[in-house]
Amino acid sequence: MKNKLTYPILVIKTEDVETFTEGYYVDSFEADQAVPYSWVARNVAEEDTSYLQPIPYVSIKCKNKIALFLRYKGGEKRLAGRYTIGIAGHIEMKDALWADTVYEIIEHGAIREIQEELVISPEFIKTMESCDHAEGIEFIDLRAQGTNNEGVNDVHLGIPITIKLTKKIPMVVNGDELKFIGWKTKEELQKLDNLEDWSLYLVNNET
Questions:
Q1: Are 161 and 56 in contact (CB under 8 A)?
Q2: Model-level pTM?
Q3: How many domains does one find in the chain?
Q4: What one-character DSSP code corresponds to residue 73?
Q5: Which domain holds residue 127?
Q6: In Å, how far are 15, 67, 75, 84, 196 from 62, measured between CA atoms?
Q7: How do residues 126-170 score in pLDDT, each as one tens digit?
Q8: What is the CA radius of gyration of the chain?
Q9: What is the pLDDT of residues 42-79, one digit of tens each?
Q10: Residue 196 maps to which CATH number?
């Protein structure tokens, strides 16, 4: 049976990360052309620090509460059993089918991940107020923070996105990779011993 980690994912060269981050919020053809990207087998990219994998990281908020999940089964084994506020995933080649730029590819990937991980019910759509980049944080880059989560932080670049709801509703997940725990305040999340690094970074820094 083929190893599922051999499928190609989108990566950028680590040496190009500054160009990538500077161009991400610039809606221009010229900015995109300056950012080379490629497709590399996931099992290779996970071990090669010359690449960074851009990862959409979607949190769901309602006023002062944030949806909390547990990384349950499957998914990133290095984060298994950790609490998270982020619905995240790698960018795959199918995300590029109707996209013209690397930034559009990533946005398509973010939408796909949300649809794969959550049951998007009519109630969810009705209560969704906005879906945009996180306030106050452009990227999650913890390579220099001293904790690398067994290499996770060394090869991934987080792109935080926030969905805001007008009322708290139960999050219904697809599959068994995530388990919905409940709605928590910033202070409650900060007290968790097992909250993954990216989530804690968002909780501590998002405005």
A1: yes
A2: 0.90
A3: 1
A4: S
A5: 54-205
A6: 37, 8, 26, 16, 21
A7: 999 999 989 889 999 998 776 655 567 899 999 999 999 999 999
A8: 17
A9: 999 999 999 999 999 999 999 999 999 998 865 556 66
A10: 3.90.79.10
